[in-house]
Design a protein that fits this description.
This protein is an alpha+beta fold and about 425 residues long. Helix content is about 35%, strand content about 20%. The protein is built from 13 helices and 16 strands.
Length: about 425
């Protein structure tokens, strides 16, 4: 009898990436790293501290989210509280602030953050992203709105974006917004046949304000002659809006009063969108506004809350459209070129010794010709290439090559660190 055949494994093609998610490749990650360095530097300058909250929380934390068209990504379990993925960062931040408020009722915090978020969108498709933003909790002056926008404009300018448009509105509060919603119901009652299906749902649910955010051309046209909310603001909301606009004027930040900017369902009073003109199209970089009822809805004392949020996907898309690229944070100074298995083993120790002497080294992992590796050394912008062939590995020598000129010299491996330092001007 012959040798029994080995069972053939049942190999299936790997499934595709889930719709609503996205991968972060090498170039994209470099762009995000460059952008995030700007976020960290400016946040510290403006007095913000970094915090982080988990992706999964007790689903009861997201009570306000039930007012949104998207649905929570819930995880059923037989024991314990219902768990859900965070659909937005602000809820975890509010939970984090609550014990601080209990210790000090007038506590003011300024945080910046990034975190994973996920939910089911309006099409019942999974939507995953990484959200980042800035959040202020506590009794702050109205000028804080202008200062936050000052930070945002400086951030996006420093990463290389331009042609900004700041769209500002005030959606009122629990006192004045209901009256305005009633006026909108009367206005849209005779125009409901011009509205899309989603806007009809908003109208029937008693939330016609959401119609202003619809991108459907017919719905947008219908809102042209609709009542404007600034005519229905209470004195407190009106005064707050005036203070914000005065702060923007003081900083010479131009803005447009735009009734189509309504923020999120949990937003109150001043809301805004920061837009950017890129490649002949308007690009929304992020949204912001007040969420002054959120802390109280979670059992805390009434507390002002001001924030801005965007996503990694949005920022990377904007940088890509604007053709903005970031260089590697650490440029290689020395590129190792091992030729053969023995040379590769010798280069391991040399690589470590270079880094122990604060010399930034790089190498190509895998079999390749010397011609190809020298091209990689040139593309890495390294000024020196250290070549170890089979002969050099056996004799304990290294070939030092000036990448620009192509000149080469042979050195004993014990002297190579000192020679590299000399060539680098150390």
């Amino acid at each position: 009898m012959g040798r029994p055949k080995k069972p053939t494994p049942n190999v299936e093609k790997a499934p595709h990436r889930l719709p609503g998610s996205f991968d972060l490749g090498q170039d994209q990650f470099m762009s995000w790293e460059g952008f995030w360095e700007k976020v960290v530097a400016l946040s510290r300058t403006f007095g913000f501290s970094q915090v982080q909250t988990p992706m999964f929380e007790d689903s009861r934390l997201f009570g306000f989210w039930s007012k949104v068209g998207c649905q929570l990504l819930n995880f059923l379990q037989t024991k314990g509280p219902s768990i859900a993925a965070a659909p937005a960062g602000i809820f975890g931040l509010a939970r984090l602030y609550l014990p601080l408020q209990e210790q000090e009722p007038i506590k003011v915090v300024k945080w910046y953050y990034d975190m994973l978020v996920a939910c089911w969108d309006e099409k019942n498709e999974l939507k995953q992203n990484r959200e980042f933003g800035f959040q202020i909790f506590g009794p702050v002056a109205p000028v804080s709105d202008a200062q936050l926008l000052n930070l945002l404009l400086r951030l996006f300018t420093e990463v290389g974006l331009s042609n900004f448009s700041l769209e500002v509105n005030n959606v009122g509060c629990v006192e004045c917004q209901p009256n305005y919603q009633d006026q909108l119901k009367i206005y849209f009652k005779d125009k409901k046949y011009d509205l899309c299906e989603n806007c009809l749902i908003y109208l029937e649910a008693g939330n016609p304000l959401q119609i202003f955010a619809c991108k459907n051309l017919a719905c947008s046209t219908t809102t042209t002659d609709a009542p404007v909310i600034v005519d229905y603001l209470c004195e407190t909301c009106r005064a707050q809006l005036i203070s914000v606009l005065e702060g923007l004027d003081e900083l010479a930040i131009s803005y447009n009063l735009n009734p189509h900017v309504i923020g999120r369902p949990w937003n109150r009073r001043t809301v805004f969108e920061l837009r950017c003109r890129i490649a002949d199209q308007d690009f929304v970089l992020g949204t912001g506004g007040h969420s002054d009822e959120l802390i109280q809805s979670l059992g805390g004392a009434a507390c002002p809350a001001l924030g801005f949020d965007s996503t990694q996907e949005v920022i990377l898309k904007a940088l890509e459209l604007a053709q903005i690229k970031f260089a590697a944070k650490h440029r290689a100074e020395v590129f190792l070129v091992p030729l053969g298995e023995l040379a590769a083993k010798k280069s391991l120790k040399l690589f470590t010794e270079l880094w122990n002497h604060d010399i930034i080294a790089s190498e190509f992992s895998g079999p390749s010709s010397i011609k190809m590796q020298l091209k990689l050394a040139e593309s890495s912008k390294a000024s020196i290439a250290l070549i170890i062939g089979h002969k050099e590995a056996r004799e304990g020598t290294v070939i030092l090559r000036d990448v620009r000129s192509g000149m080469q010299e042979l050195f004993v491996i014990d002297r190579i660190i000192d020679e590299v330092k000399k060539r680098l001007g150390r």
